[in-house]
Design goal:
Layout: H1 6-20, H2 26-39, H3 44-57, H4 60-73, H5 76-93, H6 96-110, H7 116-127, H8 131-142, H9 149-162, H10 166-179, H11 184-191, H12 196-203, H13 216-228
Helix pairs in contact: 1-2, 2-3, 3-4, 3-5, 4-5, 5-6, 5-7, 6-7, 7-8, 7-9, 8-9, 9-10, 10-11
């Protein structure tokens, strides 16, 4: 292969990394790094970014090859992120059951140091109907202070709702909204629980509950109060390199 100026290669990687941080720029990342890795085939981070771009572009087989290559040669500290990328690819194109193992690799390699692989793993387990295991994953994030805490709380609500535990679901939706008052999915899920007491009474007129659900006015007022009391400052983001 023809020699290439290392400074030029460094610039190609810098541009590719910069483009990877933007939305809808995967074509640029893929083209730049497909050239770059010909000269630096042992650069695990380049393979990781390349595989991620290919995954978004729908180039499934190439993405899997690139990401597994990245996983094989990457330092331990990057393996969890790469495994999560492989899991997302496999879940979409093969099956949630196969993805389950890759999500486990992602969280086992990382522990509780970062949150988004735990959210992804919990979502995967929820799809598989493994609700208790999903709850454990979401609680890792919900019990911390990561940016994804509101998402974890929403998902805990959704899991408890799927299990028919509507009071717990309601509590988690409210906690998610307390962090992010404009969280539309949490607000809609919360409002979707209104009138459950009446629904149960249609099935069984003698039905009573020690913890009745809030009526519509109470639910709407809770959401409105959260919105009006929202802080102005934005939440800081996390940079996953």
């Amino acid at each position: 292969m023809t020699d290439f100026d290392p400074a030029s290669l460094d610039e190609i990687y810098r541009v590719a990394k910069r483009e990877s941080d933007k939305e809808d720029r995967e074509v640029h990342v893929a083209e730049l790094l497909s050239y770059y890795i010909k000269f630096r085939p042992e650069d695990a981070k380049a393979w990781m970014l390349y595989g991620g771009a290919l995954r978004v572009l729908g180039r499934r087989d190439e993405a899997f090859m690139a990401l597994t290559r990245a996983f094989d040669i990457a330092p331990k500290k990057y393996k969890s992120y790469i495994a999560a990328g492989i899991a997302m690819l496999v879940e979409k194109h093969i099956s949630p059951h196969v993805a389950k193992g890759w999500y486990r690799v992602a969280t086992d390699a990382l522990g509780s140091e970062a949150s988004w692989p735990w959210v992804l793993r919990g979502a995967n387990l929820s799809v598989l109907g493994e609700f208790q295991e999903a709850i454990t994953c979401f609680e890792v994030v919900a019990n911390g202070d990561a940016d994804e805490k509101d998402e974890a709380l929403l998902n805990l609500g959704l899991v408890h709702r799927a299990m028919g535990e509507y009071v717990k679901a309601e509590e988690y939706f409210l906690r998610a909204l307390a962090i992010r008052p404009d969280y539309e999915e949490a607000r809609n899920a919360l409002l979707g629980l209104e009138g459950m007491s009446e629904t149960f009474k249609l099935i069984n007129p003698a039905w009573t509950s020690e913890t009745p659900f809030r009526d519509r006015n109470s639910l709407v007022q809770n959401v409105a109060n959260l919105i009006y009391d929202a802080p102005d400052e934005d939440q800081p983001g996390l940079d996953y390199e």
